[in-house]
Design goal:
The protein has 85 residues and is mainly α. The chain has helices spanning 2-7, 11-24, 29-41, 45-56, 65-74, 78-81. The protein is globular.
Length: 85
């Protein structure tokens, strides 16, 4: 459901849904990724970076490396964006 809210531009709703999901499954990388995407869209780059780093610490994380690099770039942290971890 968070992704539906994301595509509808309802970022606050997406963020709320991600938090609810993560209460039950902390290692759900897609929820962290959706949270990071939604936070980034709101210009909350530091929070987005934290969520995206969490996604990368979960199993199956390689898909999210580009998203993290984009958020780091948006936050003006271009040096880190070249090698996001």
């Amino acid at each position: 459901m968070p992704r539906v809210y994301y595509y509808a531009g309802r970022f606050d709703d997406a963020i709320e849904q991600c938090h609810k999901i993560l209460e039950f499954e902390l290692d759900f990388s897609v929820a962290h990724w959706n949270l990071g995407q939604s936070l980034r869209e709101k210009g909350m780059f530091d929070e987005a970076i934290g969520a995206l780093k969490q996604a990368m610490n979960c199993p199956g994380n390689e898909v999210f490396r580009a998203t993290l690099a984009h958020a780091l770039g948006g936050a003006g942290r271009r040096a880190e964006a070249g090698n996001p971890r």
